[in-house]
Specification:
By secondary structure, the chain is an alpha/beta fold. The protein folds into three domains: 4-128, Methylthiotransferase, N-terminal domain (Rossmann fold), CATH 3.40.50.12160; 149-379, pyruvate-formate lyase- activating enzyme; 384-441, OB fold (Dihydrolipoamide Acetyltransferase, E2P) (Beta Barrel). It has 14 helices and 19 strands. The strands form five sheets. The protein has a six-stranded parallel β-sheet, sandwiched between helices. Strands 15-16-17-19-18 form a five-stranded mixed barrel. Helix 9 runs parallel beside helix 10 (246-254), helix 10 (246-254) packs parallel to helix 12 (283-296) and helix 13 runs parallel beside helix 14 (355-379). The chain is globular and about 65 Å long. The structure holds iron/sulfur cluster.
Length: 442
């Protein structure tokens, strides 16, 4: 019987894709995936540290394995991801959970196989967290779980040091992959039948700024990826408003394969808050980028991230965020209450905002965003929309897919249409979900 692994993933898309790479390593080692912890020979936690409650959650789940490890001493428990890369965290993990066998960081993910083998050949636990980012290591195949969508890293790390964010401390400085390796990966994925490629980076617009790409910048890379032959869509995330530019939009105009949706995190509509956040753009610059994008494609949609209750945010500042949300009319927004992250500049700032004010602001903002999203949905009624079918919802009994703007469309079908582009006539818009009947499939 083959050995089994189980991975628990916390956090963002970057982590989800890194778990796919870790799974790829386990498959090459001859392991199979299991969704039951009790059956696993290796349990791996791929952690996140963006918020303190993500860490607490991981701590709780790791702690819960104590009993299983006692019953099954040969079980290997490994912990990797952003949390292990935080200063002092490996020590805390070591002391709190003496039964963890392997601790590794985001900067030495490629050593996972060697570390597991080292643990298997010795009694001692293995702790290997590299402090400084090294050369990019090109991974052999990831074990992907997101068909028909595939994530492709174009770069790692971040140079921006937004004052609330821990990412630059745990993922190191920006390192760009070579364009030819990215294009080769996309070509392979398209040949394998993937229909949507999402280019991933903390700040995709600064691709190539590290001088590693022989002069290829993000616009050029996007052009190269969208020029790969085949019937597929291209997305990219995340764009940073300080760097997003017309050159990229011109490439979007050249290729209909590129979705006309840009995820452009604004974080706040107030210049004084943006300054304290060290975002390095103003509200005016942000709005001028939105205008520029829509001058090319009036139908273009934007999604965003917003933080409310940042230190010293006044009611006036908050209202400027509301006004910006109304002006841009986002397709959707990920809204967060500011929470202190130890090790960041903002955690030391005076004038932290009381919880009840934060709560009040987030409620008002969520209401506003939801009402805008609902209004947008209603406009779809009676229209034709093309979605990429990505799953079957057992509970609802419907297939589902997303259009290029990320809107979810549900429909009935006798045959399995996962991985097909399906054109729907929208008959019902229920909140943010659309329901429709099939017109055509390709
Ligand atoms: S751009 Fe800012 S928010 Fe995004 S990962 Fe970098 S530091 Fe964090």
């Amino acid at each position: 019987m083959s050995k089994k692994y189980h991975i628990v993933t916390y956090g963002c898309q970057m982590n989800v894709h890194e778990s796919e790479k870790m799974a790829g390593i386990f498959h090459r080692m001859g392991y199979e995936e299991t969704n039951k912890k009790e059956e696993a020979d290796i349990i791996l936690f791929n952690t996140c540290c963006i918020r303190e409650n993500a860490e607490n959650h991981a701590f709780g789940n790791i702690g819960a394995l104590k009993k299983l490890k006692k019953q099954k001493p040969e079980l290997i428990i490994a912990v990797g991801g952003c949390m292990t890369q935080e200063k002092g965290k490996p020590e805390i993990l070591k002391q709190k959970f003496p039964f963890i066998d392997v601790i590794f960081g985001t900067l030495n993910l490629e050593e996972l196989e060697a570390l597991i083998k080292r643990k298997q050949s010795q009694k001692k636990r293995v702790i290997e967290v590299r402090e400084k980012e090294g050369e990019i290591v090109e991974f052999p195949d990831a074990y992907r779980t997101s068909y028909p969508n595939a994530w492709v890293n174009i770069m790692y790390g971040c140079n921006n040091f937004c004052s609330y964010c821990i990412v630059p401390y745990v993922r190191g400085r920006e390192r760009s992959r070579k364009a030819e390796n990215i294009v080769a990966e996309v070509e392979k994925l398209v040949k394998e039948g993937y229909r949507e490629i999402t280019l991933l980076g903390q700040n995709v617009n600064s691709y190539g700024n590290d001088g590693n790409t022989d002069g290829v910048n993000f616009a050029k890379l996007l052009d190269m990826v969208a020029s790969v032959e085949g019937d597929f869509r291209v997305r990219f995330m995340t764009s940073h408003p300080k760097d997003f530019n017309e050159e990229v939009v011109k490439v979007m105009q050249k290729h209909r394969k590129i979705c006309r949706l840009v995820h452009l995190p604004v974080q706040s509509g107030s210049n004084s808050v943006l300054k304290e956040m060290n975002r390095r753009y103003t509200r005016e610059k942000y709005l001028s980028e939105v205008k520029m994008l829509r001058s090319y494609f009036p139908e273009a949609e934007l999604t965003t991230d917003i933080i409310v209750g940042f230190p010293a945010e006044t009611e006036e500042d908050y209202l400027q965020t509301e006004a910006l949300v109304k002006e841009v009319d986002f397709a959707s927004a990920f809204t967060f209450v500011y929470s202190k992250r130890q090790g960041t500049k903002a955690a030391e700032m005076q004038n932290q905002i009381p919880e009840e004010i934060q709560k009040d602001r987030i409620q008002r903002l969520v209401e506003l965003v939801n009402s805008q999203t609902r209004k947008k949905s209603e406009k779809y009624l009676g229209k034709e929309v093309e979605v990429l079918c990505e799953d079957f919802d057992e509970k609802k009994g419907y297939y589902l897919g997303r259009d290029e703007f990320g809107r979810m469309g549900y429909f009935k079908s006798e045959s399995d249409l996962i991985g097909k582009f399906v054109t729907l006539k929208i008959t019902n818009a229920n909140g943010i979900s659309l329901y429709g009947e099939i017109i055509s499939v390709r």
